[in-house]
């Protein structure tokens, strides 16, 4: 709906809402419904996903601060760089933080699970070393 308004020439902030869309896809883990829409087309495309959306970004869209932030959030989650993710969460532009609020706990639990696995492995190595 919003895309159709922009196509009619109604002024707005398409890059801002593009950044929200990228973050929303991260929230849904690419499962945003039966049909996903391509970035520059007005008809539904059932096979478009995050990779397709990222491939369609123009250099001017990528240089927008909100879109650049959303792309950094995507990169931090793709590489499990939780320190970077939480820094980006704390410095979210516009209203992106409100969307991030919906899945920050999920990512916090993932980060804690990974850190606890690291601690458990270290403690087991230490205990086994003492027993031999």
Query: Domains counted in the coordinates: how many?
Result: 1
Q: The biggest beta sheet, please?
A: 2 strands, antiparallel
**H/E element string?**
HHEEHHHHHH
Q: Label the structural class.
A: mainly alpha
- Kindly, what is the distance between the CA atoms of the first and last residues, rounded to a whole number of angstroms? 67 Å
Could you characterize the architecture of this molecule?
By secondary structure, the protein is mainly α. It has one domain. Helices cover 66% and strands 3% of the residues. The protein has helices spanning 2-7, 14-27, 50-55, 59-63, 65-78, 82-90, 96-100, 104-131, and strands at residues 36-37, 44-45. A two-stranded antiparallel sheet has the order 1-2. α2 (14-27) packs parallel to α5 (65-78). The longest helix has 28 residues, at 104-131.
Annotation keywords:
single chain; 132 residues; mainly alpha; two-stranded antiparallel sheet; 2 strands; elongated
